[in-house]
């Protein structure tokens, strides 16, 4: 998992596409909380309707991704620090799941498919620097 300070989300997404990866931009909005962040991740990855909207279900979805094409999928969490400030416990829970899911899908892990998750956290709103 990598963290970048006030990046240009478009540049991160373009870099992912350039290496053949699929970017998924997650933005929980101006007033993030745990549930809005879970919903934003679900929307970014087009989770199936049966997604359980909890941390265990989030891990299951991110380590499966079978409804998406094979390859690397890059979760770009825009302004992750906003949730950290608003709901530190919710942030730690989601951050832990993202870290565990990324580790579980890395090459060399006991995986039978070719889907891999990479997580990039941004500390700014993702707009281009002025």
Written description of the protein model:
- The chain has 130 residues and is an alpha/beta fold.
- The protein has helices at residues 9-18, 34-44, 55-62, 80-86, 88-104; strands at residues 2-4, 22-26, 71-77, 115-122.
- A four-stranded parallel beta sheet has the order 1-4-3-2, sandwiched between helices.
- The chain is globular, with a radius of gyration of 14 Å.
- The chain starts with a strand and ends in an 8-residue tail after the last strand.
Task: Give the tags.
130 residues, alpha/beta, Barnase, Chain D, four-stranded parallel sheet, 41% helix, 18% strand
Describe the secondary-structure layout.
Layout: E1 2-4, H1 9-18, E2 22-26, H2 34-44, H3 55-62, E3 71-77, H4 80-86, H5 88-104, E4 115-122
Parallel strand pairs: 1-4, 2-3, 3-4
Helix pairs in contact: 3-5, 4-5
Specify the number of helices.
5
The count of domains is 1
CATH topology: Barnase, Chain D
CATH superfamily: Barstar-like
Q: What is the 3D shape?
A: globular
Order of helices and strands: EHEHHEHHE
CATH uppermost class: Alpha Beta
CATH architectural label: 2-Layer Sandwich
Strand order of the largest sheet: 1-4-3-2
Please give the number of β-strands: 4
Mean pLDDT value: 90
Uncertain runs: none
Structural class, please? alpha/beta
Q: Whole-Å distance between the termini?
A: 26 Å
Radius of gyration: 14 Å
Beta-sheet strand percentage?
15-25%
Biggest sheet overview: 4 strands, parallel
How much helix, percentage-wise, in residues? 40-55%
């Amino acid at each position: 998992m990598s963290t970048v300070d006030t990046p240009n989300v478009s540049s991160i997404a373009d870099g992912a596409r350039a290496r053949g990866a699929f970017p998924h931009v997650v933005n929980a909005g101006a007033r993030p909380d745990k549930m809005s962040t879970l919903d934003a991740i679900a929307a970014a990855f087009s989770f199936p309707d049966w997604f359980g909207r909890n941390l265990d279900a989030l891990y299951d979805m991110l380590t499966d991704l079978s409804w998406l094409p094979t390859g690397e999928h890059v979760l770009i969490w825009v302004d992750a620090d906003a949730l950290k400030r608003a709901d530190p416990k919710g942030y730690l829970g989601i951050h832990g799941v993202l870290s565990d899911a990324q580790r579980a899908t890395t090459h060399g892990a006991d995986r039978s498919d070719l889907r891999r998750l990479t997580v990039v956290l941004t500390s700014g709103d993702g707009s281009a620097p002025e």
